[in-house]
Design goal:
Strand content: 15-25%
Number of strands: 8
Shape: globular
Radius of gyration: 22 Å
Helix content: 40-55%
Number of domains: 2
Oligomer: single chain
Structural class: alpha+beta
Order of helices and strands: HHHHHEEHHHHHHEEHEEEE
């Protein structure tokens, strides 16, 4: 696997670490790539905890394969190759890592293993294509899961990371022609899966929340604190899509039907109407962290994270995640 570039300082330092046989020195050099490799694994797997595990597996494989690195490719390229193939091996062994039917009319399906990606764990360089908002939002991650694993890898390497076809082919032990064919099929599937309102994933990256998004997430939290069901209803589009993961049951509903469903499930009723909220961002999207205090509890306990997709000042998609027992989200368990 080669890149048309001279040996860089990173590669020279890595080769010296390999010759030394010092695992601590090896770890210091490879560690700087951890965050971007974890994002890469997350795009492949849609699950933050799996991505953590596979990133660690990448470093273990890299240590065992260290003698195979000759400096003909960038260290980063070599590590991405290992990470991609580690994810493909993982997917080969798991039959629970494919979307399942929603029960809704049409071809919709759910990704029950989807987890949010905390923005605080993204790579720090905002210019990196690896953190482009259009390629980390939940809808994009879900769409990628509809690709067969090898198509998925081709699509991410080519269209997200911008690798040329020969480089992607080398990483996956494929021909350039087969990579080009797989990419064409993957692009067709992605355009079917992504709603029309989504930006093209190959446009220049954006990172910041809009004023609309900030205003809507604040209004959403305020409505919870006041138990203002009319206010909450007014924030939702009538073609709202709602899911509470990892439970099965994505629904499309009018705003009124959605709120009525939450109320019939016990929320906003006496004993389940004392809310506190904070904001966060996951997957470069606005999110409300919801805390609920029940009569027997002395404090507000973490209830869920609601990730909002805002269109024209309204919530078009609301994805709720069980936030308990997930310290990597970086939110306190109580308020």
């Amino acid at each position: 696997m080669t890149d048309p570039r001279p040996l860089g300082a990173d590669e020279a330092a890595f080769l010296a670490a390999v010759r030394s046989g010092d695992p601590a020195r090896f770890a210091r050099i490879t560690e700087r790539h951890r965050r971007e490799l974890r994002v890469h694994c997350y795009r492949m797997l849609a699950n933050y905890e799996d991505a953590q595990d596979l990133t660690q597996e990448t470093f273990l494989r890299a240590w065992h394969k260290r003698e195979s690195f000759k400096g003909h490719a960038a260290l980063r390229t070599w590590l991405y190759r290992i990470a991609t193939n580690a994810c493909l091996d993982f997917l080969d062994k798991r039959n629970d890592r494919t979307p399942v039917p929603t029960g809704l009319p049409g071809p919709d399906s759910e990704v029950l293993y989807l987890q949010p990606y905390p923005d605080r764990m993204l790579p720090e360089d905002p210019q990196e294509s690896v953190v482009a908002r259009e390629t980390i939002e939940l809808a994009f991650i879900v769409a990628v899961q509809h690709l067969p694993p090898r198509q998925r890898a081709v699509f991410i390497l080519r269209d997200v990371l911008g690798w040329p076809a020969p480089k992607a082919a080398d990483a996956l032990d494929l021909t350039a022609a087969s990579v080009t064919s797989a990419l064409q099929r993957a692009r067709a599937t992605m355009r079917e899966q992504l709603p029309d309102r989504r930006l093209d994933w190959r446009r220049p990256a954006t990172h910041e929340l809009s004023n609309d998004e900030r205003d809507v997430v604040q209004a959403y939290m305020d409505a919870h604190k006041r138990n203002d069901l009319a206010g909450l209803t007014s924030l939702l589009r009538d073609d709202l899509r709602f899911a509470m993961l990892p439970e099965r049951g994505t629904s499309s509903a009018t705003a009124k039907d959605a709120v009525d469903g939450w109320v019939s499930g016990g929320l906003f009723q006496p004993g389940h109407d004392d809310w506190r909220c904070t904001t966060t961002t996951v997957n470069r999207m606005p999110a409300a962290v919801l805390y609920l205090r029940t009569p027997e509890a002395p404090e507000h306990r973490l209830f869920a994270i609601a990730v909002l997709h805002v269109v024209d000042g309204k919530i078009a998609e609301l994805t709720g995640f069980d936030a308990t027992d997930k310290p990597w989200l970086g939110v306190p368990p109580t308020l």
